[in-house]
Design brief:
alpha+beta; Pdz3 Domain; 3 domains; globular; disordered N terminus
Length: 477
């Protein structure tokens, strides 16, 4: 009997032990990993994860070579000279003995020779030389400048050039790989890589006489140094997403942060300069501040992001749209704006007379209003820069294609009448056809205005008389 009880006790104990073992094992499995390697676990989980498709799309794109190869030929070296002084008897002294020099980069954006650079690269320059990636050299004319965005448009007389296509900076996101291409320290065609660190950065480096500067930079950690200014920031498709403009540094060299002007703003400024000769800024006419958590708490706002309107100008686009002090602007054209920088960029993409849809918060409710933008003078129209036909005692006339063809000239401007002034003082006679100034082709009177606008000191004027006699004159401008 005792033997039977002992056997039964052993069986019950085994059964209970098995049950406890199962329970313990279940609990242990729930709280402890059943794999020997975290790395292997991550790999096994990523196989079925949606992130797997994302990674497989990104990893092959990390070959920077296609974008660098496509863009590098369209990034140029820009050399400028300043204050050449009085013209010398040696006509070439102007080029070989300049008073001062500097350099930067530029981006070809059309096959016929339009080039984007920074305003600060060519500011106050009396001569602008462009060196292509293949070492071809051209003297460029300045089509227009916009100090408020630190942009400038140049033109060289060439055809069939490689160019960088525009991308869409709105689609650029933090974490995206980008390439910076330029000429740091006069080292031509330098390519560096990094990621987009942030967008809509305002670092307080631009100044404008009317306080209309727009700083909404793309921040990257791609290495950018002196000489990179005006160069290209591109995505891995080889599309232009920004113009490199500044670095944050205590040493004067790269220290980890670089800043580029977003291409969606660049495109608008370039079109303005091309069509009008100067930028056409559409303004809301408001005084604004960033909304912060502290500010929202202090004045009782129901949002902690956006742009607070602290004042509205009399007769402005904002006043016409019904926007008032105390409103918080949260979107422009339904594009969310969280900072002053973002709002300024979105508005600056528009010309006077164009309308923008403004979304704003007032008394806990979101409203929308259409604002018709105005310029700084309060006008709702864009105006072309005045072209002078009478300059320093000379009256100029454009030449038509047939006249130029008959004289076997590619371009030129005729001095129709000549009175007292610098042209006559230099020895030029009436009827002279100006073909080049400081090696830059004079295509028409508008081109002549653009060239003369930046001249100071001596300049070299080349051309031909109606009888075919060529002339070269030095003018103290």
């Amino acid at each position: 009997m005792k033997r039977v009880l002992l056997i039964a006790l052993v069986i019950v104990s085994a059964f209970v032990g098995a049950i406890l073992g199962v329970l313990f094992t279940f609990r242990y499995v729930q709280s402890s990993p059943a794999y020997p390697s975290i790395e292997q676990r991550q790999k096994s989980m990523l196989v079925a994860s949606p992130r797997d498709s994302l990674y497989s799309a990104i990893i092959p794109a990390l070959n920077f070579q296609p974008a660098a190869k496509a863009v590098t030929p369209a990034v140029v070296h820009i050399r400028t000279t300043y204050g050449a002084g009085n013209f010398s008897l040696n006509a070439l002294e102007h080029y070989f003995n300049p008073h001062a020099q500097s350099s930067g980069s530029g981006v070809i954006v059309s096959d016929d020779g339009y080039i984007i650079t920074n305003h600060h690269v060519i500011e106050n320059a009396t001569n602008i030389e462009v060196v292509l990636n293949n070492n071809q050299r051209f003297f460029a004319k300045r089509v227009g400048i916009d100090p408020s965005t630190d942009l400038a448009l140049l033109k060289i007389k060439a055809a069939g050039l490689p160019f960088v296509p525009y991308g869409d900076s709105d689609l650029t996101t933090p974490g995206e790989w980008v390439l910076a291409i330029g000429n740091p320290f006069d080292l031509n065609s330098t390519v560096t890589a990094g990621i987009v660190s942030a967008k809509a950065r305002n670092i307080g480096i631009l100044r404008d006489r009317n306080s209309l500067q727009v700083e909404s930079f793309i921040q990257t950690d791609a290495a950018v140094n002196p000489g990179n200014s005006g160069g290209a920031l591109v995505n891995l498709k080889g599309e232009l997403i920004g113009i490199n403009s500044a670095i944050a540094t205590n040493t004067g060299s790269y220290s980890g942060y670089s800043f580029a002007i977003p291409v969606n703003l660049v495109k608008k400024v370039m079109d303005d300069l091309l069509e009008f000769g100067e930028v056409q800024r559409g303004l809301l006419g408001v005084q604004i501040n960033d909304v912060t958590a502290d500010l929202a708490e202090e004045i009782g706002l129901d949002v902690v992001r956006g742009v607070l309107v602290s004042g509205v100008n009399q007769g402005s686009a904002a006043q016409g749209a019904g926007i008032a002090a105390g409103d918080v602007i949260v979107a422009i054209n339904r594009h969310e704006v969280n900072t002053v920088s973002e709002l300024q960029e979105m508005v600056a993409r528009n010309r006077p007379g164009q309308r923008v849809l403004v979304s704003y918060r007032r008394n806990g409710t979101t409203h929308e209003a259409t604002a018709f933008l105005k310029n700084y003078e309060g006008r709702s129209t864009s105006e072309k820069k005045q072209i002078l036909r009478d300059i320093e005692g000379a009256a100029f006339q454009d030449m038509d294609y047939q006249e130029l063809n008959d004289r076997e000239l590619e371009s030129g401007v005729l001095i129709q009448r000549l009175g007292e002034g610098k042209w006559k003082k230099a020895g030029i006679s009436e009827g002279f056809i100006i073909t080049h100034i400081d090696k830059v082709a004079v295509e028409n009177i508008e081109s002549l205005n653009q060239i003369l606008e930046i001249k100071a000191g001596g300049m070299l004027v080349e051309g031909v008389y109606p009888n075919g006699v060529k002339g070269t004159y030095g003018i103290d401008w």
